[in-house]
């Protein structure tokens, strides 16, 4: 099973990319993992036409190939004004259903403080309708992100006991969420194969969600 991790902060360096790096390190259940930091690629703003995806210098053909190869995805967004980032929503608009349909996705929100639920709610409500990604029931909210998952970074001072306790609980939650995502990726691979082998009559008429 192959995993694609997409971090969607619009600046670099970012806490979202840091979290992606940690998830990439600990997702050992998957045979391959790849991390895409969206802001490092040239993605045109999609105008509703297929041609815009392949404009001069567009990185979309490369990113599309990564999406196509993946059996599961992790989407990571910072919370900006209670919303997911425009660059992530643009990425999801560009995704072709043929590459994403019936693949599980773990949603991750990264926030400086203690909020972070709004981007998850937004993505569950309106980001998966036509690409037919399947959001798993679990999600992750990385609160107080600057204090979390810094093991591989230079530390100015050791974290206090309360931070260490919260980080330990977070890491256990991450391990569980990755395990469940792997389970869903295995199960839904069979659904995708059945979708190819035994298509529903006129299934092309139901390409988009209601």
Automatic annotation (TrEMBL):
The keyword Electron transport belongs to this UniProt entry's keyword annotation: no
Bilayer-crossing regions: none
Residue ranges of domain NADPH-dependent FMN reductase-like in the record: 1-145
SUPFAM superfamilies the record matches: Flavoproteins
GO cellular component: cytosol
Keyword terms of this UniProt record: Flavoprotein, FMN
Coiled coil: none
Listed GO MF terms: FMN binding; oxidoreductase activity
Signal peptide (UniProt feature, chain positions): none
Name of the protein in its database record: NAD(P)H-dependent oxidoreductase
Taxonomic placement: Bacteria, Pseudomonadati, Pseudomonadota, Gammaproteobacteria, Alteromonadales
């Amino acid at each position: 099973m192959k995993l694609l991790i997409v971090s969607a902060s619009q600046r670099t360096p970012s806490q979202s990319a840091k979290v992606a790096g940690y998830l990439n390190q600990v997702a050992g259940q998957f045979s391959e993992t790849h991390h895409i930091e969206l802001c490092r690629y040239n993605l045109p703003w999609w105008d509703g036409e297929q041609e815009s995806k392949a404009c001069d210098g567009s990185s979309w053909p490369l990113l599309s190939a990564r999406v196509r190869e993946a059996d599961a995805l992790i989407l990571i967004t910072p919370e900006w004004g209670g919303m997911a980032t425009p660059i992530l929503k643009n990425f999801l608009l560009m995704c072709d259903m043929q590459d994403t349909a019936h693949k599980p996705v773990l949603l991750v929100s990264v926030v400086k403080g203690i909020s972070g639920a709004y981007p998850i709610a937004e993505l569950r409500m309106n980001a998966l309708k036509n690409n037919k990604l399947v959001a798993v029931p679990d999600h992750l909210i990385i609160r107080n992100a600057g204090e979390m998952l810094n093991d591989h970074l230079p530390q100015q001072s050791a974290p206090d006991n309360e931070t260490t306790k919260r980080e330990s609980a977070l890491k256990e939650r991450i391990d569980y969420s990755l395990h469940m995502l792997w389970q869903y990726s295995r199960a839904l691979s069979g659904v995708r194969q059945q979708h190819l082998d035994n298509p529903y009559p006129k299934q092309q008429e139901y390409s988009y969600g209601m």
